[in-house]
Design brief:
Blueprint (H helix, E strand, L loop, with lengths): L1 E7 L4 E3 L11 E9 L3 H9 L5 H8 L6 E4 L4 E9 L4 E9 L3 E6 L4 H12 L8 H14 L1 H17 L7 H32 L8 H67 L14 H22 L9
Parallel strand pairs: 3-7
Antiparallel strand pairs: 1-2, 1-3, 4-5, 5-6, 6-7
Length: 320
């Protein structure tokens, strides 16, 4: 599918014109978006636009790292959008020349539709060439990172606030899944940040002061995203450590309970074992009050040991 938008020499924004209109030289600049391309549309990169073969190869061989390549007639950018449902990066290829922008991508991208609508809405502000169109596209791509990172941050803060002995393994599994998602985001955001830095200070692109200010704004957003991702990754590590500490504390309490129970029953088991041997010369076995005496002795021993444990403060370890 091909979508077009351009600005004519009469300062008018026109939409969905055929590619042949480009050759009439009546456009100050134009943007051609090739999305979900067919084989014939893929061939337009070479047959109509005559882009460099290496850049075309990068478009067709996914997934490239975010980067910028300089060619004689155009600049070539590889950008990464981020699919919130699949939680994986998707490639957006961008060709930028003096009077044209061409985007090429396989999956549909809402960001490009938003950028297109923005250009249509503020057409009077887009008389400064293709770099501001490029800014608009990149800005929309970067803006889509924020809701994903905010959603992860809110969930982690909620988990951290509710972290307690009642936290289950399912919650921790979700935390570990989010840690993996943060790693994928990090692999996208940091290369995009480095790419924006190269764009701002590249001698080949030679941005003017206004254009540099626009791209610097995107760079600041990427710096903020980087810090948020790193902070959230550290938070997942803190939650993991806290969860391990809680589990260790829970295990210690369980072992303490079992130890007290076992300690109380050791002398009782000894007494039962002695009188369970049934030797014929054990006078207590024939005594009328032998059973009641032994039971009473066992109760006294158990009660005394429990009282002694309480006196020593062992039961205080079970308090929250």
């Amino acid at each position: 599918m091909i979508k077009t938008i351009g600005r004519t020499t009469s300062q008018e924004i026109i939409l969905d014109f055929p590619l042949e209109y480009i050759q009439t030289n009546q456009l100050e600049w134009y943007w051609v978006d090739i999305g979900e391309p067919t084989k014939e549309e893929e061939k337009l990169l070479s047959t109509f636009f005559h882009f460099h073969p290496l850049a075309i190869e990068d478009c067709l061989l996914m997934l490239q790292r975010p980067k910028m390549d300089h060619y004689e007639q155009h600049e070539f950018f590889v950008l990464h959008t981020f699919n919130e449902k699949l939680m994986e990066a998707e490639e957006l290829n961008l060709f930028v020349g003096k009077d044209f922008v061409v985007t090429f991508h396989f999956p549909p991208m809402r960001e490009l539709n938003d950028a297109r609508e923005r250009i249509k809405l503020y057409s009077n502000g887009w008389d400064r060439g293709t770099m501001l169109v490029t800014y608009n596209i990149v800005d929309k791509v970067v803006d889509t990172y924020f809701p994903i990172v905010y959603h992860i941050e809110d969930y982690l803060n909620e988990v951290d606030d509710k972290l307690s002995m009642d936290m289950n393994h399912l919650s921790m599994d979700q935390v570990f899944d989010l840690r993996s998602d943060l790693l994928r985001l990090r692999r996208t955001i940091i290369p995009m940040r480095d790419l924006l830095y190269r764009v701002m200070y590249s001698e080949r692109i030679n941005l003017n002061q206004m254009e540099r200010a626009y791209f610097d704004d995107i760079y600041d957003h990427l710096l903020k995203l980087t810090e948020m991702v790193e902070a959230n990754r550290e938070l997942t590590a803190d939650i993991r450590d806290s969860y391990d500490s809680i589990n260790a504390s829970r295990m210690n309490r369980i072992m303490m309970i079992l130890t007290i129970v076992s300690t109380v029953f050791i002398p009782l088991t000894f007494i039962v074992g002695v009188y369970g041997m049934n030797f014929s010369n054990m006078p207590e076995l024939e005594w009328k009050y032998g059973y009641f005496t032994v039971v009473a002795l066992m109760i006294v021993i158990a009660t005394g040991m429990i009282a002694w444990f309480k006196y020593k403060g062992w039961f205080n370890l079970f308090r929250n």
